[in-house]
C-alpha cells in the first residue's frame, strides 16, 4: 500500500524486508530478538514482536505470547529471558548456569522444566495480548486465546503491584537495570554507584563477540549487573522488604503497567470477567505515578531511587513514555510534548528519532546503547502517545522517520538519533515487527 507521507515503494519494500526478518528469527514457537546477539526468548521483545506479527500471522503472534507465559513463575513473575536449551551456554552471558532458576528460584515458584532468568522486564504483555486479539477476534475467540492468557496476565500484573511495590507507595520498582530494558541508561548511574562490581575476570562477556565495544555498556557496568543478579539469585529471588540493594521506580515500566491494566479491562469485558477492578487499579496507579514521579520543572517524569527516597535528576526517555496513557491532565500532556520536541530530546530537529537520553545531558553519547541512541520500541510508544493526544503532525513525522530509518538500516537494533546511522545488531526483531505495525 503506497502512502502519501512515504517515498514511493518504501511501504512494500519495508513490509517485505520486515517480514523476512521475523521469519528468519522465528524458532518454531517464539522469535529471538537477534540470531547472533540474543539467541533466546526475551520478555518485552516478545510483546513488541507479537504486536507486529499479528498483522502477518495472528496465530504466530498468539504463540509468541503463550510460549513466554509457559515460563511464568508461580509468584506471577514473567522472567526476562526464557532459555533455549539447544543453544550452547557460551552463546549468551549470563547463561542458564548463572541464573540457575529451576533450583535457586524454587521458593519463588520457578518452573522445573525450563531454564529462565530471575529478573523481569516492563509489562507490555497484556497490551500486546489485547492488540493481538483485535487483529483477528474470530480466530482468537475460536482458540480461546484471551481466556487462556487472562489469568496469567493478571498474576503477572499483581506480582508487580504487590511484591514489587518496594517503596510501599503504590508503584512497581525495578531491582536491576536490566529490568528497565534500558540497561545502561544514565538514570541508573547514581543508584548503581553503591554496588561493588564483580571482578571482570570472573565472567566472559559474550556480547562483545558480536557487538562493537563502543556501542555496548562498559565492563564496570557489567561488573555491577553481575553482582546484583548473583546476589538476588543467592537470596532465592525473594523480594523481601529492605533486601534489595538497588530499587528504583521507573516511569516507563509503571506507564506500561497502567496501559496493560487498561488492556486487561478490555480483555475482561470480552471474556465476561469483571473489568471494574482493572479500571480502579489503572486510575490509582496513574494517580500515584503523577504524585510520585511527575516533575513540573523538568517537564517530564523522573525516576525515583527508592532506597534514598530521592528523585534521579537525569532525563532519560523513560520519563516521556507515560504519554501513552489516556488519563493525564492536559498540562502534563502539553509539557511532555514540549519536552519531547525541545532541547533535551530534539524531536522535529535536531533529532530525527527520540534519543534514549537527554541531548544536553553530561553522559550523552549518540552511539552507546541506552545513553543516547534512538530505539524503535521507544519511538513506537512515543508515536502512539503523540497520536493518542492529538499531536497528529508530530506523530506522522515520527512514523515516517522511523519507517525510513528501519528500512535503510536493515532493521537495526538502535540508531544515532541525529543521522539514523545503524548501531548495534541488524535484523532486529522488534524493529521489524514495529515497522509492520506502523505501516498498518
Ligand atoms: C539484557 C534483547 C534485550 C532487550 C533489552 C536490551 C538488551 C540485554 C543485553 O537486549 O538487553 O537483557 O544483553 O544487553 O537492552 O531492552 O530486551 O533484545
Automatic annotation (TrEMBL):
It comes from Streptomyces hainanensis. Pfam families: MGH1-like_GH. GO terms for molecular function: Glc3Man9GlcNAc2 oligosaccharide glucosidase activity. This is Mannosylglycerate hydrolase MGH1-like glycoside hydrolase domain-containing protein. Residues 38-431 form the Mannosylglycerate hydrolase MGH1-like glycoside hydrolase domain. One of its GO terms (biological process) is protein N-linked glycosylation. Belongs to the glycosyl hydrolase 63 family. Keywords: Glycosidase, Hydrolase. The keyword Hydrolase applies.
